[in-house]
Every structure is written in structure tokens, then in C-alpha cells.
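Fold it.
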Amino acid sequence: MSSLTREEVEKVSLLARLRLSEDELTTMTEQMSQIVSYVDLLSEVNTDDVEPMAHAVEQHNIFAEDAVHESLPRDAALANAPKRDDECFRVPAVLGD
């Protein structure tokens, strides 16, 4: 049965940029250990006669036809935008000024 250490949960919270209190860290360690243990149960399933597959359900030609269609009118595309100007979506700067 697998479990996670407190240090592993601290590392995951750091990578996720989550600041956890001591109580939250204790709770998360217990909960994440339970999740890992539950997922570890999958190793007990006998898959000797199961062929490797990409999807659980067989699928054929799931892609749409590659054809040119008329695009959405600009006003319709911008209709539900939280911020916009006359031509574009307005978004916060990501890379600085």
C-alpha cells in the first residue's frame, strides 16, 4: 500500500504554489495518501488477457471533415466577451508592459 510523506505533500504544494497551514498540510497528507492507495488498487487487477488500447470505447473517424466554412461574424464572436473593444478581445498583459 502506497502513501505519501508530509515532505512529498509539501513539495507538491510548493510546485502548485499553494500555501498550506500546518493543519491543511496534515489533512492533505492523509487525503492524498488515501487517493494514492486507492489508485494503487488498480495494480491488483489482472490484465494478462487485455490488449493495450488508446481508448476504452472503440472510435472511428472522430475528426470533422477538413472543409472551409464561413467564419463566425465578429460581433457574434465578441458578444459574450467580458472585455472587448470594437475589434478584439481585451485581456490583461501577460508579459509585462
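The helical segments are 6-15, 22-40, 74-78.
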